[in-house]
């Protein structure tokens, strides 16, 4: 996770080797799946919410998460924004987006559960899923926003060796800029911020807090690293300009 000192030093860090790129088509995304794999696995290991699932850091878990990555990239028509290190030819960070529509019957599904997990792993996965589901039970996002179709920044991560270099801000800024230019009918863009520092970056870039849920409402929240800092799951929003 990006720390306070790292954030303060971000603007002083050279980023000449990092380019922000956009993948539009499914074929482009699938072709780069292997390049995304390492920071993808780091996301599930380090993200406060998903770090409560020990199985994500096992060999079997990583195999399942690799299959999930391919599923997510293959079944998503939305642009994927990523940071590319031109010197090392590797992905430095990414934001994978999903569409949610008011009549989307698949919105409540959890694709990670389709893979072969132990009973213990499934219990931990269910705890995360049930916690996130509380938002849907407590709030109707579409009624709250008065919209029918939103773009959701679902998976957000910067690879460990690149954290503290301002890359997260560049990724989020690119997503917001592309959202305002898009012609796909999305009326708002949301960011699910399970990480406090991602929340702060979204706030700095003009997104507004829509709702939040305290992690203490999840049974095993104390398994999170630094759970005092990452104390809440927050949903940030920016509506399309009229």
TrEMBL record:
| Database matches in InterPro entries | Acyl_CoA_acyltransferase, GNAT_dom
- Any Pfam family matching the protein: Acetyltransf_1
Where the record annotates domain N-acetyltransferase, the positions are 77-190
Q: Name one GO molecular function term.
A: N-acetyltransferase activity
List the SUPFAM superfamilies hit by this protein, alphabetically: Acyl-CoA N-acyltransferases (Nat) (SSF55729)
Q: How is this protein named in the record?
A: N-acetyltransferase domain-containing protein
Q: What organism is this sequence from? A: Bugula neritina (Brown bryozoan)
Taxonomy, top ranks, is: Eukaryota, Metazoa, Spiralia, Lophotrochozoa, Bryozoa
